[in-house]
Amino acid sequence: MEVIVLPTAADVARLAADVIERLLTTSPDPVLGLATGSTPEPLYQELIRRHREEGLSFAHARAFTLDEYVGLPAGHPERYAAVIRRGLTDHLDLKPEAVQGPDGSSADLLGECTRYEQSIVDAGGVDVQITGIGSDGHIAFNEPGSSLASITRLKTLNALTRADNSRFFSSAADVPRHVLTQGLGTILRSGHLLLLATGGSKADAAARAVEGPLTASCPASIVQLHPHATVLLDQAAGAALEHGEYYAEVWANRPVWQPL
Ligand code: F6R
Q1: CB of residue 134 inside a 6 A radius of ligand 1
Q2: Residue 157 lies in a domain
Q3: CB distance 40 to 129 below 8 Å
Q4: Residue 218 carries which DSSP code?
Q5: Hey, which residues does 129 pair with through a beta bridge?
Q6: 248 in a domain, yes or no?
């Protein structure tokens, strides 16, 4: 695990974009794992900019989203399938059919979870998985108490997450209670896990994920178990880290030949 604390959220976005750009330019068949929410928005803006201004191509890539609300009607703007199209994939040369997410309006939700998990396996797995972190330590929509070995399944959001996400809805009561989400086991199988956190409201959760115990009570603590995890934080999100000075020393002395 590598922890990198950068001055601003824009710096986090640029470094994360560098990782994705390297994957896109070195792999003939890159598979991206995409998160929704506010945290990756500057990263997605940066990827769109590099596509438009520098010709970075996504035409050969495929992508899988982490999670989806259950029960939002077709056409609802907060369905994560719509959010990721609006915020990223509509602005790239990624083929629409190359972007998949779990279908939260399936009549067979259990079967849909099995199908989605298998589609990730069939694609050869996710190469670079982008995630945010919830203020309760969730990753994707794996709330505290999630099995460390879980795969894609239905979960129930807790009150804190529904309150946090109420900014996208008219009220907390309108935030769906149920979601389909990749499991912690699914995320652990990604090739490179890139966890992003920005802003002071994430400082406590980021410190627990990185320096607390590996525990289902803080699902994002699986970054400690992943064989190749990079945690990118801005100053505010890194403020509660105990070993911040050491992470800064590692970053400042990173060998130039060593990729993230
Ligand atoms: C979204 C997701 C969630 C968010 C988390 C943080 O696909 O998987 O885990 O990453 O809720 O959300 P923001 O970034 O909005 O603070």
Answers
A1: yes
A2: yes
A3: no
A4: B
A5: 33, 193
A6: no
Give 40-65 pLDDT, tens digit per residue.
999 999 999 999 999 999 999 999 99
- For a mutational test of ligand 1's pocket, the pick from 67, 86, 167, i.e. the residue with the most ligand atoms closer than 8 A to its C-beta, is 67
Cα-to-centroid distance, 115 and ligand 1 (Å): 23
Show the domain range for 101. Answer: 2-191+206-212
Task: State whether the beta carbon of 35 lies less than 6 angstroms from ligand 1.
Answer: yes
The SS3 call for residue 206 is: helix
Residue 249 inside a domain? The answer is no
Which pTM was predicted?
A: 0.98
Q: Is residue 50 in some structural domain?
A: yes
The predicted-structure confidence for 105-130, as pLDDT tens digits, reads as follows 999 999 999 999 999 999 999 999 99
Verify whether ligand 1 is closer than 6 Å to residue 38 (CB atom): yes
Are 238 and 208 a contacting pair, CB within 8 Å? no
Domain with residue 51: its CATH number is 3.40.50.1360
* Residue 5 near residue 242, CB atoms below 8 Å: no
Question: What is the domain count for the chain?
Answer: 1
Q: State CA 218 to chain mean position distance.
A: 16
Q: Which of 38, 106, 33, 119 is nearest to 70 (CA)?
A: 106
